[in-house]
Design brief:
The protein is of the alpha/beta class and 247 residues long. It has 11 helices and 8 strands. The chain has a single domain, classed as TIM Barrel (Alpha-Beta Barrel), CATH 3.20.20.70.
Length: 247
């Protein structure tokens, strides 16, 4: 099955108005085949939606598992939708490791996002210790299955999954194309055991120090449908080059 490639830029806690303007100008001329999403910090979401071409998606980096109420500092899925977001990143390794997000909380966020009409980008990934213990497949497929168990496989007809090896995020290290493909194939097989049709149609992204000079080899793998890009999404030229590599 031919899946539309997708490239999502996760700005993390980076970016200013000048970067937003630079990226909007660069993407105004982008007419490639890949779907493109920008995920800036919360304060810039409305400005991003206003500045970006309609063909470029905008997403949040996190969302609350609660709909509203007395939860200071939290942002709800309906708020993101009202700001023009179409996507939201769920379960990034930094959220899991630094803020203690559990599989149950991540499943709750996934459900809230979809209820508001957002497409979740669900992140899964293993640490260096887990990889060295040969636990990669067990860990990443376990993280995926925990959400499937919480929301049901049918929900993944409106979702994206991103494999991000924790040891390759912001370290300059990158899984080889072959290593990444093995994990992506296992994720797709795990999905197929729940629903073969959804497994074939679901976009699987790779994240973990993707750059302009390694993107094409990664994206050429049969089960890698694009990327969730961190640092390289903060420079317009490099991000555009990665989008072009995904085509």
């Amino acid at each position: 099955m031919n899946r539309t490639p997708l490239v999502a830029g996760n700005w993390k806690m980076n970016g200013r108005k000048d970067l937003l303007a630079e990226m909007a100008d660069a993407l105004a001329g982008y007419a490639g085949a890949a779907e493109v999403v920008i995920c800036p910090p919360f304060p810039y979401l409305a400005a991003a939606r206003s500045a970006m071409p309609e063909t470029i998606g905008v997403g949040g980096q996190n969302v609350s598992e609660r709909e509203d109420g007395a939860f200071t500092g939290e942002v709800s899925a309906p708020m993101l939708a009202e700001m023009g977001c179409g996507y939201v990143i769920i379960g990034h390794s930094e959220r899991r490791a630094l803020y203690g997000e559990t599989d149950a909380a991540i499943a709750g966020k996934f459900a809230r996002a979809q209820a508001a009409g957002l497409t979740p980008i669900l992140c899964v990934g293993e640490t260096l210790q887990e990889r060295e213990a040969d636990s990669t497949v067990e860990v990443v497929c376990g993280q995926l299955q925990a959400v499937i168990d919480g929301v049901g496989i049918a929900a993944f007809a409106r979702a994206v999954v991103a494999y991000e090896p924790v040891w390759a995020i912001g370290t300059g290290k990158t899984a080889s194309p072959e290593q990444a493909q093995v994990v992506h194939a296992c994720l797709r097989q795990s999905l197929a055991e729940n629903d073969p049709d959804i497994a074939q149609s679901l976009q699987l992204l790779y994240g973990g120090s993707v750059k302009a000079d390694n993107a094409a080899l990664l994206f050429a793998q049969s089960d890698i449908d694009g990327g969730l890009i961190g640092g390289a999404s903060l420079t317009a030229d490099s991000f555009i080059a990665i989008c072009q590599a995904a085509e």
